[in-house]
Amino acid sequence: MSTNPPELRPDLAPRARITDPKRPGQPTIGMVSLGCPKALVDSERILTRLRAEGYGVSPDYSGADAVIVNTCGFLDSAKAESLDAIGEALNENGRVIVTGCLGAEPDYIREHHPKILAVTGPHQYEQVLDAVHSAVPPSPDPFIDLLPAQQVSLTPRHYSYLKISEGCNHKCKFCIIPDMRGRLQSRPAHAVLREAERLVDSGVKELLVISQDTSAYGVDIKHAEDRGHRAHITDLARDLGSLGAWVRLHYVYPYPHVRQLIPLMAEGLVLPYMDIPFQHAHPDVLRRMARPAAAAKTLDEIAAWRDICPDITLRSTFIVGYPGETEAEFQTLLDWLDEAQLDRVGCFQYENVEGARSNALPDHVEPQVKQDRWNRFMEKAQAISEAKLEAKVGSRIDVIVDEIDAEAATCRTKADAPEIDGNLFIDEGFEGVSVGDIVTVEVEEAGEYDLWGRVV
To answer: Distance (Å, rounded) from C-alpha 18 to C-alpha 58?
Structure first.
């Protein structure tokens, strides 16, 4: 049993979990999946295609004929982590194919690791398959393989990420994601619904809706209606809510039409939870970021959302130490946080990323100042979190069970996304519950980020 650490990077997905039996003589591929949940979905799609061609999936280096490393290029620290992962795979296995966001910089990767077999960019599934075929030719068993592929999941069976679009039309100066993943490309609504239905039919209890910009879903295809489903986030949320699973929305930009989602949360169709990347609160910092600079108006929106759905949980991420950030601007952020009283908050210190326009901005903040501001920000966020969780003691809430060990059942409330928010632990009387169950608990104790309770 472990409590939720306060320093989780907002660009990381849960650890991939691979359990796949191998038949004699079957070629096998290992997968190291780094980066955000969107990259995890890409890894699942690659492995699903390979499974359909007769490949097995190895959970370790020694059992794999080759290893795919799906990389992240979100921050320089993430790039370094990706390079380390490639190096480890080369040392442990020797036959490595690189894909993902950092794959958009093949020369950079080959400069550090010239022995890799191939490099492909993000969501280039066909090129990855071609590289695998070249390195490890398929050898399907016609009596076992070559059947319609069952979705390979890298998450526990009871929840799954559901990617509704790729790319982004924003031009934030600190971000190179649009350069790596391109402009917004929305999936047809009927295709998203079909995938969601398959997931729920297979036992998934929670759908985590992800994209680069969930609010903008369907803008690029003019909210086209096809086979009775319109490509608009409000319609899609309503359709997903009819499937009977928990539906959690991530990466929601606070456009005016987002208010239409809140009644769906109040009705219980969608979880009363929104993940909104505010990034900062001072208008000048937001302008330097090339983001909408209306923090005061955002406070009004938050108040309106809470009027419609008092139980709504708001999570966000912020950047401290952005180039030019003054002490007064940072204090504005702290004051805004006091007023907004967000439930779940992540924060990271600004880093230069090769290719980002923010690198050229003047007045970069010294590392020790960034660290001090991060400490002060997290101290305030922690105090808000602790007070909000303390207010839940004595209440009865539904939780979903993620893991069970000898010490406790580790669960999440509707206010908690997997591995980025807190947990609720049942450390007594949990013998009758199973992973994936949704049970009602009474909250008995609260910490800074986590809760403890008992089944009722």
So the answer is: 7
Exposure class string for 340-373: b at 16+ Cβ within 10 A, else e: bebbbbbbbbbbebeebebeebeebbeeeebeeb
Q: Does 172 carry a binding-site annotation?
A: yes
Q: 105 to each of 82, 98, 135, how far by Cα in Å?
A: 12, 11, 21
Q: Taking the domains of the chain in order of start, what are their residue ranges?
A: 28-135, 159-390, 396-455
What Rg do the C-alpha atoms of the chain give, in angstroms?
22
Q: What is the pTM of this model?
A: 0.84
Which class in CATH covers the domain with range 28-135? alpha beta
The H or E element containing residue 386 is helix 367-390
Single-letter code of the amino acid located at 220: D
Task: State yes or no: 347 annotated in a binding site.
Answer: no
Q: Confirm or deny that 309 is annotated as ligand binding.
A: no
Q: Six-digit token pair at 387? A: 């007070």
- Contact status, residue 40 vs residue 14, Cβ threshold 8 Å: yes
Q: In the numeric block, which tokens belong to residue 332?
A: 């504005």
> From CA 250, how far away is CA 420, in angstroms rounded?
12
* 396-455: CATH class: mainly beta
Token pair for 41: 């979905």
Answer yes or no: is 175 a known binding residue: yes
Q: What is the CATH number of domain 159-390?
A: 3.80.30.20
pLDDT per residue over 242-270, tens digit each?
Answer: 999 999 999 998 888 899 999 999 999 99
Average pLDDT over the chain reads: 90
